[in-house]
Design goal:
about 100 residues; mainly alpha; 6 helices; 2 strands
Length: about 100
């Protein structure tokens, strides 16, 4: 369930990247490591924030993902704001992200 592909991406990271909330929820319920980064340090919460997938970001917040990570010199909140994903940015603010 939590096995990475050749590039180090796990199912939760892939689901977060493409906004597949149902798969993300299934993987979270199966006790996947929700903060495990890919080899390039990308995390599921970073991918959901970067691509504006508010439903996945909400799910990860509820699963207590680390929303204060500083990855690629930005925070998740800054990344969502820079990409004009207001819904994700508001969600992160409500979750008290830095």
């Amino acid at each position: 369930m939590d096995k990475p592909d050749k590039l180090g991406a796990k199912p939760l990271l892939k689901a977060s990247s493409i906004g597949h909330a149902e798969v993300a929820q299934f993987v979270c319920r199966a006790r996947a490591d929700i903060d495990k980064p890919m080899t390039n340090r990308a995390t599921p919460s970073l991918m959901a924030s970067q691509h504006g997938h508010a439903d996945v970001a909400q799910l990860l917040c509820a699963a207590t993902a680390d929303i204060d990570k500083f990855v690629f010199c930005v925070t998740l909140l800054l990344l969502a704001s820079q990409n004009k994903y207001a819904e994700v940015a508001q969600l992160l603010c409500r979750a008290r992200a830095d």
